[in-house]
């Protein structure tokens, strides 16, 4: 059964967005009305884009209005598709995709550095367009807590299209899906859109991770997606914390393990204190489970976006505790987090010495590597290599070509 439907934002506050209204009709073809603050430049292009989208979605009879506030094509396509799906609930439709940016299909690495991950609401186009400019190692396009439940269908299509149309620069492309099992529906379109890491919120059972991993692999095979897609479970409850190791080990696709402070405290009935004593056990669980499973431990977010000194101290404690990165909820937090997780000069010097000793032993055919009385094994060498790599990226060391 069809019905009147709409999608997107309207009004002058709806920057980089558009509002689409669809009223199904029995006949008469498509009656399209477009208003735009840039209609003197793009009115014909907008009409052509919308009509093409409706044709691809096999909509033949409807009254359609579009109120544009500077939406780029991938946003407008997502809003049209959302309105169509809402107008004919339950009817199957093809995906209405924008052209894919080849740079957005570049694979990521399971062990890449993830110092900072910037959360962005998946239903706000204005934040997606410039997500890469803030210097975060990764951007998290959020489909869960940052999006009102009634708008999560629209956010999924918008994020899917953004992954196709935008490269996000050097940022790793992450998406936090909805809580499983609902979040399983989010996974196939995101995998086809070349997402690199999927965050699994409120994870409490290793079977949730295995179900997500199986769906990722099935979708990759069916869609011919060559790049690997990794998982990052988020522990946010006592039940999840008690199964931290089992969750971290549930799938070889898991690249990192993280946790959510606010939900966890609410679940245990705890209160936040300045020294964080109430979360000492939880942080220990995450770090030890991640290290035992061979994945990265990533710390939770710091909620006070105005207190950068507090963020710096909180991040320093996380680093010293064994975490390799931290979530950010505002762009101003990114430089602070990145700075704290850059290796210190003494760490860099030690890492260089380890690499040099390992290379010397290999040239000489020695199987045993030592610095002083300390034996050096493969994990230590790998860790040293990652420290050297980050130091080069931060400009603390010349690159392999000898330039800074």
From TrEMBL:
Q: Output the superkingdom of the source species.
A: Bacteria
What keywords are annotated for this sequence in UniProt? Cytoplasm, Lyase, Magnesium, Metal-binding, Phosphoprotein
| Locations listed in the record | Cytoplasm
Main subcellular location: cytoplasm
Q: Which GO terms describe its biological process?
A: oxaloacetate metabolic process
Spell out the protein name for this chain: Citrate lyase ACP
What GO cellular component entries does it have? cytoplasm
């Amino acid at each position: 059964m069809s019905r009147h439907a709409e999608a997107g934002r309207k009004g002058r506050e709806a920057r980089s967005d558009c509002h689409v209204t669809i009223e199904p009709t029995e006949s008469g073809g498509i009656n399209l009305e477009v208003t735009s603050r840039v209609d003197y430049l793009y009115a014909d292009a907008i009409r052509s884009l919308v009509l093409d989208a409706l044709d691809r979605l096999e909509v033949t009879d409807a009254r359609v209005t579009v109120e544009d506030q500077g939406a780029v094509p991938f946003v407008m396509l997502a809003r049209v598709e959302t309105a169509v799906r809402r107008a004919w609930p339950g009817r199957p439709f093809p995906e209405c995709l924008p052209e894919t940016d080849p740079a957005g299909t570049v694979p990521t690495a399971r062990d890449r550095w993830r110092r900072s991950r910037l959360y962005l609401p998946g239903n706000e186009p204005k934040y997606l367009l410039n997500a890469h400019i803030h210097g975060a190692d990764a951007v998290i396009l959020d489909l869960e807590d940052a999006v009102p439940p009634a708008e999560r269908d629209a956010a999924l299509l918008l994020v899917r299209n953004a992954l196709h149309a935008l490269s996000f620069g050097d940022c790793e492309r992450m998406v936090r899906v909805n809580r499983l099992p609902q979040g399983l529906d989010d996974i196939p379109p995101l995998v086809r859109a070349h997402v690199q890491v999927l965050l699994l919120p409120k994870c409490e059972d290793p079977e949730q991770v295995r179900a997500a991993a199986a769906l990722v692999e099935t979708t990759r095979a069916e869609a011919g997606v060559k790049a690997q897609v990794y998982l990052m479970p988020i522990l946010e409850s006592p039940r999840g914390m008690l199964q931290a190791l089992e969750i971290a080990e549930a799938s070889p696709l898991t690249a990192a393990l993280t946790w959510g402070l606010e939900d966890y405290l609410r679940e245990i009935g705890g209160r936040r204190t300045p020294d964080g004593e109430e979360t000492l056990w939880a942080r220990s669980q995450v770090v030890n489970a991640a290290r035992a499973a061979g994945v990265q431990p990533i710390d939770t977010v710091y909620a006070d976006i105005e207190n950068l000194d507090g963020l710096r101290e909180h991040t320093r404690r996380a680093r010293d505790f064994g975490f390799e990165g931290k979530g950010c909820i505002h762009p101003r937090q990114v430089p602070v987090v990145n700075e704290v997780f850059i290796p210190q000069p003494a760490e860099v010097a030690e890492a260089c010495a380890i690499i040099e000793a390992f290379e010397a032993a290999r040239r000489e055919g020695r199987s045993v590597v030592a610095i002083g009385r300390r034996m050096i094994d493969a994990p230590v060498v790998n860790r040293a290599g990652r420290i050297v790599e980050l130091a080069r990226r931060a400009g603390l060391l010349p690159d392999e070509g000898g330039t800074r």
